[in-house]
Specification:
By secondary structure, the chain is of the alpha+beta class. It has one domain: Double Stranded RNA Binding Domain (2-Layer Sandwich), CATH 3.30.160. Helices cover about 20% and strands about 25% of the residues. A hairpin with a 6-residue loop joins β4 and β5. It is elongated and about 40 Å long. It starts with 15 loop residues before the first strand and ends with a strand.
């Protein structure tokens, strides 16, 4: 049985698009104003505006659906006090002694 496409559950009444020409290819930034989620993509140079809009909205719906999916970072860590499977590393700024978590 085929898996259900999670993008179909995403409702996008409005999408903000910014299209910039970088060289010969358009750089497309699509933003969902409700959630504030932003995606960036480079479209083919010969793509029409309709194709660019469709691809940007599909990518935005995919990212929103992916962020909605529950992620179990502690899979396999049933023991109490066990470390999670993923631990983000701190960001160290190059010209500074400060650390960002």
């Amino acid at each position: 049985m085929a898996a259900k496409d999670p993008r179909k559950d995403v409702y996008l009444p409005e999408i903000l698009l910014e299209i910039r020409r970088v060289g010969k290819s358009p750089l497309v930034i699509a933003i969902d104003p409700i959630t504030g989620i932003e995606v960036i993509m480079v479209a083919p140079a010969n793509a029409t505006r309709a194709v660019i809009k469709r691809n940007a909205s599909r990518k935005l719906a995919y990212v929103i659906a992916k962020k909605r999916m529950p992620v179990n970072c502690n899979a396999g860590a049933e023991k109490e006090g066990a470390q999670p499977a993923f631990r983000p590393r701190p960001i160290i700024l190059a010209n500074s002694d400060r650390r960002l978590a």
